[in-house]
Amino acid sequence: MPSMSPHFDRVSAGGQESGKKALFGADRARVDKLLVEYLKTVKATYVLLVDREGQLITVQGERSDQVDMLMVAALAAGSYEVSRQIAKALRKSDFSIVYEESPTDTFQVSSIGKRALLAVLFDTRATLGMVRLYAQKLAQQLAPILDGM
Predict the structure, then answer these.
(1) 50 Cβ partners below 8 Å, 6+ apart?
(2) Which of 22, 33, 60, 126 could lock 43 by a disulfide, CB 3.0 to 4.6 Å apart?
(3) What is the pairing mode between strands 46-51 and 116-123?
(4) Is the pLDDT of residue 94 over 70?
(5) Is the pTM of this model over 0.70?
(6) What domain range includes position 66?
(7) What is the CATH number of the domain that holds 127?
(8) Rounded to an integer, what distance in angstroms lies between the CA atom of residue 115 and that of residue 78?
């Protein structure tokens, strides 16, 4: 499956580096490989790796040209942050996963380490338990790479 990854250098509108680093070289190849393996294992439609501010790091999988992945990334991060604030208001620890469901698809957003989120769209070909189990395993593999960005 070819990479559908945008290549961001994380430079602000003023031309100054934003203080964040993008994935390059071996790290990018390893992350993309892990995402493709995850996608195939759980039979997801697509998987996005997003930083906590909503910037798309990379995306893999089937996607329509009509889907704005930059917007999906920003909204996924926003949804996750809303969930964190609800947990805080309820005096609970952070909720670790956010789900959005339609009659045909499920969208899951989960935390990867301190800096990133994993967003997955899957349909009835995939089971929620499998998506969640393998997302936890993937998080363990990705966290050391992403936390070092």
Answers:
(1) 56, 57, 73, 76, 77, 116, 117, 118, 119
(2) 126
(3) antiparallel
(4) yes
(5) yes
(6) 25-147
(7) 3.30.450.30
(8) 14
